[in-house]
Amino acid sequence: MAEAIRDVNKLRVFAFDEGSNAPKDFIRAWRKALLRRFFRTRNLIRNGMWPTSIWNLMVCVALFSILLAGDWNWAKPVTSQLWTIGRVCCLHEGVPFPLSVLIMSTIGGILFFIVLMYKRRLLLRVLLSYNGWLYEMPRSHSMRTYLWGSCVKLLSGYHPTLYSCQKSLPYLPLPGLNDAVDKFLASLRALYGKDSDEYLEFETEAKKFKNGVGVKLQRALVLKSWWAQNWITDWWEKYVYHMCRAPLAINSNYYIGDLSHWQPTHRQVSRAASVTHEVLCFKRLIEREQLPPLFIRNTIPLCMSQYERMFGTTRIPGEEVDELVQANNSKHVVVQRLGLYYLVEVLDVDGQPLTSQSWETQIQWIFDDADSHQGEYSEGARSLAAFTAQDRTEWARVRQQHFQSGVNKDSLDILESALFHVVLDTKRCQTWSERGKYMLHGNGSSIWFDKSFNILVFSDGRCGINAEHSWADAPVMGHVNEYHLTNEVLLNLYDADGFCRANPDVKQAAVRQPIRLVWDMSGDLEVKVQRALTISEQNNDDLDFCMQEFSAYGKGFIKKCKVSPDAYIQLALQLAYYRDAGRFVLTYEASMTRLFLHGRTETVRSLTQESCNFVQSMFDENATNEERIQLLRLATEKHQSLYRDAMTGKGVDRHLFGLYVVSKGLGLECDFLKKALAIPWILSTSQQPQQQIATSPSCDDPQYKNQICPGGGFGPVSNEGYGVSYMIPGNQLIFFHVTAKKSCGVTDARRFTRLIFQSLWDIRKLFEPDLHSDNMDAVINGTIDVDPAPKQMTNGIA
Asked: Has 484 been annotated as catalytic?
């Protein structure tokens, strides 16, 4: 402790042999800047031209050269105009004819190319505004959709880079006021009943709203939709995320887990090194825009703008509203061990990325240094991350008071400007549920929740990610997670002893030693840390968590039933909750709107009258299986329709939220919108995407059945409800992550998981009445909660 206090008073220069060889440093810096500028300029030109290309420009110039040289009468209307431009540009008769043709064809080709580029981009944007394909079955498209798809492929450029498609994406449409209100009332009829006092009151207020203040609010929203690239995203980020004062842990951040059964290495240091190296490789792909953009059915592009803020981003607390700050030129990662933080530069002294073996050496040094120096730091100094797990306003005040100058500011700047954080945890979890719960909130002081993402590596070599939610949605973080896990499975990154495999083709220059950060814990900072830690631990203890694998069947059987797997599971959730609570509740399912520029999410209101009818039929002894199946099909079709509407900008909740923001801005009180947005989401659900990387092996391949990531989860939106995240990785498995609050008293995450499994089993029995129930108890009780022993590895591969 004495050494740490003494270091506070020292001048700290975070450098290594800087200026010892000025000419070499200058050449290296010049080369790096030139290379960086080359990639940026190249990508800027390619993206600016897309969907056209430099080859289109060359063809245009060649075409005009032929027209000018041939001097055909039918081309006179064009060529005469070009020669007129030439005379204006002082191309006199003394200029050789071939040179004149070259100059004028270049001018004409460029002008024609610019017109072609903008027209092609505009036409592609108009074509991508068509959503009819989404409402048709994948293998039974109409002739109209086939023609539309052919036109999209014809107009689209070849080999797009990460952001090439951005300028061709359509803007998010604004739904009509009457449609949004009518859909909202339809969801309330299922919730309250059409003859209930609650529904009739909402219906009366809705009519007044549609004919009164709603019209004015809609006009204002229409105006914003005309000039903004996305009329809701900035408001959603500011008012839903950044103005929320609740702690980020559990309430906002989410987690993504490791591979389900297989483990590439048991060595914590080696796993941390390899994952860090692979994630930085993913960063380089983003920087150079070499990461392929995502397409639906290999035709329809998705918005990739969220990837821009993945690295170097931190959510800075404010007393009223937070903000995202990104360090665009950051070149370091922060590694945390036993509450001690270390700055680790990601490049060697020659400016080359560290190899996985170099990362292994760096992290091993940190591992040893932290173990030997943790006693020099007070408990408060090792628990500073607890501030990021408390109320945002309180954290902002503490930050303003204690971290605005001196060594605390220097150290905090390093933490917040890091590309990401790596946590070398001392914990070893025995079950999926234990590990998932820990990755969601840590031990109260182990995760810097403000950071865009933290990589957690456990003492047994297992790993996971905790991510801040406001900068991007979970599929974006899932993409990088899938990237490093896929490489671990396919590329044999570890040797037979579990260490990082050496790459003999890479010669690493000298590497700078990690720098341990210090803190000034004077004043009442120590007391405030302890208070924040106590609050964080109380919140963590209140979380009820269950993560289990449903192995009776997967989407293979569901597809045989000719229904949507997602809609099928949503009905199982409705049935499970009705069994659990004896009532229906408002249900939230997240849907993406990335078909549009800067699109994020929209809400699917999964509770419908059709889903209620199906659930009630399951308790009606007089109902036959045929009748129940018919009701199930009607309910799944309704759900699919709502999901498609949400994806195509015809949702309800973002629209109502936008109207509410406008009403506050105009100073108009609207009781209808207040009440509408105040109804709690007792059941909050989300399906996680699988296989976003086209080259990833199929989850149904028997060779990789134990090497599947089960996804991740989030906390309950309502203190009286459940948070349910699920992933359908293949034809035989479904993973569920269920959260609740222990303080609620009536919820139980494990009980609800069993009810989900029972509902899935009962729905299958509708289609297979003679299904043997020998294993039903094992399936329903979820006996696969214990984390299996890692598969035996040979050369790093099971």
From this structure: no
